[in-house]
Amino acid sequence: MSDDTSTTDAPEAEPEAPRDERRDAIVAQLVDALGDAVIESHVEAGRDIWVRVATEAWAETASVARNGLGARYFGFVSAIDWMPSPFGRSMDSDVDKVLEAAREATAEADAAAEDSTDGEAGSGLQRGVCGGETRFQVFARVASIGVPGEHWGITLKADVPDDAPAIETWTATYAGADWHERETWEMFGIDFVGHPGLRNMYLPTDFEGNPLRKDFPLLARMVKPWPGIVDVEPLPTDDDDDEDES
Fold first, then answer.
1. Nearest-CA neighbor of 193 among 59, 54, 63?
2. Same-domain check for residues 167 and 208
3. Per-residue pLDDT averaged across 73-97, rounded?
4. What φ, ψ does residue 56 adopt, rounded to 5°?
5. Three-state SS annotation for 153-209
6. Which residues constitute the domain of residue 180?
7. What share of the chain is helix, strand, coil (3-state, %, to 5)?
8. What pLDDT, in 10s, does the model give residues 121-175?
9. Are 81 and 214 in contact (CB under 8 A)?
């Protein structure tokens, strides 16, 4: 009896992800300039680039992006607090509450991750493209525009230490970062070391707290629901007009 393996189904090879040589080359240039300070990168072919760098290399990254890669257009600098709000989403309208099941499904996984790290701050959180290690991250958008064939953008991000939320300023490289860093300092409480003048832009000088942190209570909404919670009535249809006439 002969063995016939000709009919055995061979595993199908997974299709290769599309490549973007230009954007891959941009990431390679960053790695050449910054070395191990480039922690993680992601390229979506034909669309975009994300790169996470070490906190201590944040200012150097700005210089490399502008002077080395040619990303002379500054978009913004901001921050994000990845911690889920301890107040939940009790003020959501009905259309937002469809996410409740998904939130409950991930809550146990997040709690288990926190337990496995002995309650380490920020553990078990989803931190977007290129990940992260801390609760807060600073991120920025710069681009190359105006040069034929060289129109691309890149999102750069870096972790901010939980125990001392501070990172270097970008103002020496991108002057437009001035107001963006002031706003981030005011709203998130992140210090930008070397900034020429961090001071409030929107809040009174004696205001306490940072309103864009997830653990900052929005007391005004607890006293009076915000207008968006009201469900909008559907617009009348032709069928409604026919019923009125009958």
1. 59
2. yes
3. 77
4. -70, -10
5. EEEEEEEECCCCCEEECCCCCCCCHHHHHHHHHHHHCCEEECCCCCCCCCCCCCCCC
6. 21-83+130-227
7. 35, 20, 50
8. 445 577 889 999 999 999 999 999 988 878 999 999 999 999 999 999 999 999 9
9. yes
Give the residue carrying structure tokens 């300023």: 169
> Structure pTM?
0.74
| 154 and 200 together in one domain | yes
Assess if residue 232 is contained within a domain. Answer: no
Residue 81: closest CA among 111, 43, 126, 49: 126
51, 94: one domain? no
Q: Which of 25-34, 184-193, 218-227 has the lowest mean pLDDT?
A: 218-227
In a domain, 10, yes or no: no
The CATH number of whichever domain residue 35 belongs to comes to 3.30.460.80
CA proximity to 168, closest of 37, 3, 7, 25? 37
pLDDT tens digits, 208-244: 999 999 989 877 666 666 555 555 566 677 766 566 5
Is 200 among the domain residues? yes
Residue type, 216: F
Beta bridge partners of 81: 136
The answer to whether residue 15 sits within a structural domain is no
Q: Of 73, 93, 124, which closes a domain?
A: 124
Name the phi and psi angles at 143, rounded to 5.
-155, 160
Which pLDDT does position 111 carry in this prediction?
Answer: 58
Token output for 151: 């129109």
Shared-domain flag, residues 112 and 185 = no
219 lies in the same domain as 115: no
**Paired sense of beta strands 166-168 and 191-193, if any:** parallel
Total domains present in the chain = 2
